[in-house]
């Protein structure tokens, strides 16, 4: 009896490790649970760690629907983009990389060679510091497909200090990155 108990304890860490690893999101894992991600979200923070709202992403048949609810921003227009790397290291959030651009296009809806998949309209912020942006990105996928949003290094939502001019490459001359949120599978 004692030998069986010791053998069972010896294999317990392997079983626990296997369970924990299966719960982590791995976009390269062919498991159906990962290939069929239908929603994602990001909590937006500034460099000091103060909350600036949230973003939710929902898979549609023909693209993804992104909703950003921002708060405590300065009034006016702020560039809002999906960036290609799921990292939001302060103070400047450059760890998020460039815009999500799986097809190698130029920046901006007004650029004849544009636009990146991560290009979106400006987040318009009122005098109360809040803003709402709702946009559908045609042909986009959260996971799976030719150019998934959640690939091996993830993705992030970045809000800039100024307005995106919708044509300057590579980032719309939108100024510094003032808030960032790493996109993760699931909602809030």
Q: Give the overall pLDDT as a whole number.
A: 82
Largest sheet: 5 strands, antiparallel
Q: Structural class of the helix and strand makeup?
A: alpha+beta
Give the CATH topology.
Immunoglobulin-like
User: What is Rg?
Assistant: 20 Å
CATH architecture: Sandwich
Q: Measure the end-to-end span.
A: 47 Å
> What global shape is seen?
globular
Order of helices and strands: HHEEEEEEEEEE
Tally the helices: what do you get? 2
Q: Which spans have pLDDT < 50 for at least 5 consecutive residues?
A: 1-34
Give, in spatial order, the strands making up the sheet with the most strands.
7-3-2-1-10
Number of domains: 1
* CATH C-level category: Mainly Beta
The CATH superfamily name is: Superoxide dismutase, copper/zinc binding domain
Range of helix content: 10-25%
């Amino acid at each position: 009896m004692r030998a069986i108990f010791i053998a069972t304890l010896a294999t317990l860490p392997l079983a626990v490790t296997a369970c924990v690893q299966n719960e982590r999101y791995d976009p390269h894992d062919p498991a159906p649970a990962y290939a069929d991600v239908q929603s994602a979200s990001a909590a937006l923070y500034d460099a000091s760690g103060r909350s600036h709202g949230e973003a939710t992403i929902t898979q549609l048949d023909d693209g993804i629907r992104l909703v950003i609810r921002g708060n405590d921003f300065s009034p006016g227009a702020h560039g809002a983009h999906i960036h290609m790397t799921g990292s939001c290291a302060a103070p400047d959030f450059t760890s998020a990389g460039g815009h999500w651009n799986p097809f190698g296009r130029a920046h901006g809806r007004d650029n004849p060679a544009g636009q990146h998949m991560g290009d979106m309209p400006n987040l318009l912020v009122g005098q109360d510091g809040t803003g709402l942006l709702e946009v559908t990105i045609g042909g986009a996928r959260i996971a799976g497909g030719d150019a998934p949003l959640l690939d091996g290094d993830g993705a992030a939502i970045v809000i800039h200090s100024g307005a995106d001019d919708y044509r300057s490459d590579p980032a719309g001359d939108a100024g510094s990155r003032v808030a960032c949120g790493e996109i993760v599978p699931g909602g809030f």
